[in-house]
Amino acid sequence: MILLEIPWNVNPIIVKLGSFELRWYGILFASGFLLGYQIMVNVFKKEGKPEKDLDVLLFVMIVATVIGARFGHYFFYEFDSFLKNPGTFLLEMITPPYQGLASHGALVGIVTALLLYARSHKDQPFLWVADRIVITVALAGFFIRSGNLMNHEIVGKESNLPWAFRFNNFTLNPDGSLRMTPEAITRHPAQLYEALSCLVLFGLLFYLWNKFKEKTPRGLLLGIFLIWVFGLRFCYEFLKENQETFEDQMALNMGQILSIPAVLLGIGILIYTFTKGKNIENV
């Protein structure tokens, strides 16, 4: 029997108590940080860095990721609305639920935070800490995109491939419960494509770090991460529905436009790594 579609009937809400909802997305989002923290504990132990610094690094990463991703969403996708009522949007950026997270904004937030972190931790230069953090970010990407899959969001375009998913539309019943109505069409499981790509990248980056450890060429893992994640993001966008209606009039959507400089930056970092970077210890 040939599989013609995969009905995706997972309820995004695990449990609902009054106005409180525990969602798969929240569990998966938090899991990325928790497992990432354990990976960094292993890294710091093997490279002789003070483990007490990890609490600061974890806090920096959480704040930078959430604020950067929220700001990026409003700046890149809802800029006109943001200008009309900046006070409301600024409040929404820092208060849950965090609906609308832009990975390109998260990248800017994380890079900024790591630059500040490295300035106050002289034994952990920017490229050193960035090379190791991207291992955990790749794993977090797997969990976040899996969360998008659980939420039936960031869906792909219509597809008749054997592994196409039939997602659901959601409406609220009068009693507050969720009613799921299957879509009429099947789609590319774009969230799954990106999740699996991030998982493979995590395995590659962890393998390279485990092989070289403190001898890992500065910038190698960061450069690979940027090219892999945003190069594939550029390609996957051709298989995804646009997130905002204004993108329908664009030759390339916002995700693709923002991915181009990230890929170019990754290429530049790798060129630096294999020329000057190997001989510089404090960058």
Automatic annotation (TrEMBL):
| Sequence intervals crossing the membrane | 24-44, 56-77, 97-118, 125-144, 190-208, 220-239, 251-274
Pathway recorded for this protein: Protein modification; lipoprotein biosynthesis (diacylglyceryl transfer)
Q: What Pfam families does its record include?
A: LGT (PF01790)
Asked whether the keyword Transmembrane is assigned, the reply is: yes
Q: Which GO terms describe its molecular function?
A: phosphatidylglycerol-prolipoprotein diacylglyceryl transferase activity
Enumerate the UniProt keywords alphabetically: Cell membrane, Membrane, Transferase, Transmembrane, Transmembrane helix
Q: Does the keyword rRNA-binding apply?
A: no
Subcellular localization, as worded in the UniProt entry: Cell membrane
Instruction: Return the broad EC class.
Output: transferase
Q: Which NCBIfam families match?
A: lgt
Q: Which family does it belong to?
A: Belongs to the Lgt family.
HAMAP family named in the record: Lgt (MF_01147)
Q: Its function? A: Catalyzes the transfer of the diacylglyceryl group from phosphatidylglycerol to the sulfhydryl group of the N-terminal cysteine of a prolipoprotein, the first step in the formation of mature lipoproteins.
The family database entries (PANTHER family) matched by this protein are listed as: PHOSPHATIDYLGLYCEROL--PROLIPOPROTEIN DIACYLGLYCERYL TRANSFERASE, PROLIPOPROTEIN DIACYLGLYCERYL TRANSFERASE
- What is the name listed in the Swiss-Prot or TrEMBL entry for this protein? Phosphatidylglycerol--prolipoprotein diacylglyceryl transferase
- Organism, as annotated: Emticicia aquatica
What is the gene called? Answer: lgt
